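Think of the structure tokens as a kind of shorthand, similar to the way a musician reads notation: each symbol stands for something richer, in this case the local conformation of the backbone. In the example below we present two proteins back to back. Begin with the first one, reading the sequence and then the tokens, and try to describe in your own words what changes along the chain.
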Amino acid sequence: MNLKDFKSGTYQQQYKYKSFLPNKINHTFTWDVPRINVLLEDATRALGELNAYTMIVPNVDIFIQMHITKEANTSSKIEGTKTQMDEVLISKEQIDPEKRDDWQEVRNYIDAMNYSINELDRLPLSNRLIKKIHQILLDSVRGASKQPGEFRKSQNWIGGASLASAYFIPPHHEDVVALMSDLEEFIHNENIFVPHLIKIAIVHYQFETIHPFLDGNGRIGRLLIPLYLVSNGLLKKPSLYLSDFIEKNKSAYYEALTRVRTDDDIIHWIKFFLEAVIATANSGVETFETILVLKQDMDKKVMKFGKKAQNASKLVEYLYQKPILNATEVVQVLNIAKSTASSLIREFEEKGILQEITGYQRNKNYAFTKYLDIYSKS
């Protein structure tokens, strides 16, 4: 099918409302839009450069954890949470009680992402895996009563207080299983020849239109993007996350999805998606470049610790994964006495590596601010 001939679906009369039934997508797609060709080339090149950095940065997995943390926080923020990055990186007990639900949602997203990446070694990107991710995402949070890990068995809607005032009503729940089966078949169909970036753009649109769960569809839909890219070998590591771009261009994002449903304009959506990949991949490359410069600086500073250099090196490596900590964590991570940990922290402060951020006399937290700043700017 030529993208110009794409038909998104039809409205189906239900009791007192109409739901949108998307057409199935498990077939090939072609196009004769030069702009898509150029964007696809640029996106593929940018993605390749980002992938290259994940292979040249030493111990890249420790830095990927901060990528995942930022993505979890930003993706959750799109859905209304108000947790800040520095809050995500401290323990639940240190969070104000009224913010703990938001904190838990972000932590669940991190757990879901790490679980799914590990499972890709054993399971294909499938409805089975998607359901498990959803179960982790909604564990012990506000969506815990909304069928975690199961496709919905009732009608949902987007926007508005009820079906009567809804902005968009996804397909009836009786159609969800068939639509998600078609989506899964499209993901794995090796007999159709569609470039992966075009394919995942269509998959993301279709998933958000099906809205197969009662809650968490936006976060799962965005999480599917890096999972698809990793599972198909376009990325060695989960280093591309579009949530930051989407959050900054939220209106344009929702408008692009809506235009497919109202005007069959999937070309506009694919252009938006490819532009998001280009901008995000370029930003990711800049982030890794900055990390490499910082790492070189840290390596030089560690060498000046003399006999403490081994512990200093271990602590810096831990800070790359968790850039906010306290003295108790240093004791546990390095297996050293509290007095030794306090002395090491003091020296890290003197050398400008750590900064005390609470202002307390006791229960102090220390931040690796130069590293945190990289993720606040990227």
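Once you have a description of the first chain, move to the second and do the same.
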Amino acid sequence: MSVSLPPAQGPSGEGVTIDTVAIAQAGLKEGPGGFWQDVFRRLRRNPTAWIGAAIVLLFILVAALAPLIAPYPETALPGAKFITPTHIPGPGELAQFPLGLDRFGGDVVSKLIWGAQASLLVGIISTALGLIGGMVLGLLAGTFGGWVDTIIMRLVDIILSVPNLLLAVSIAAILGQTPFAVMIAIGASQVPIFARLLRASMLQQRSSDYVLSAQTLGLGRAQITMSHVLPNAIGPVIVQGTLTLATAVIDAAALSFLGLGGGRPETAEWGRMLTYAQNELAIAPQLAFLPGICIAVTALGFTLFGEALREAMDPRTRAR
């Protein structure tokens, strides 16, 4: 049974009749449950999503199970006695070291496994920091508008004027050479991206018919924002977070390559492995190729899954 409220005045002065049953039905059709079920259904039909998810899942499992599957501890140097100034054992030369040794005598297989754990930790924490900071700024700008929006967006524009990696390097250099400094540096460089994206998405949602209906029903701005606008605007931010994980892994390796990650030289981290492989390219090129391949494949996995998720959540493709 349809219950109609008295006509209300819309933005242009015309009468607006609100059908509460229609609003409820629209909420059921566009609610979070139905939307996400459709997203998952589209992801299951997308081969790119399966490939990206398989790479990401493998990366997470290797990182999580590193203490169990790594042949040697993170800083162990079991092959130090086999290293000479002119020769570093490579893949297949020693049975107990399938992928050979690094310049310090560490097992390359173990270093790659422990490096996955380090990269995953830095990537997730830095992206979470950037996501939280960006969402706070974007939520404030998109909710209040006016001078609040102007100040926040001008601050974001200033940060965006500095290249992403250069900003991360500057922050890491100021905070010191520690893994936590790298996480803060990468997260801070990602804040403007999430802030602008959430603000734009919220401004688009604020012009929707359901917001006008909620205002006419007497709901406050805070309730409309948190219960209706934010849940419908957060989809693009989730997609960007998935894509940003790939960038975070690359940035973490870049900062470690530049010597800003802290730790000892034999610390297992993909970027650090690349740093110390430069001097051995002529005699042990695999020391550079193997961590480089790991970085590229991991970033590719997050990118493929993020792009598939973006397509699944895009209303222009969902209508097909």
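Compare your description with these statements about the second chain. The domain at 53-75+100-318 is CATH 1.10.3720.10 (MetI-like fold).
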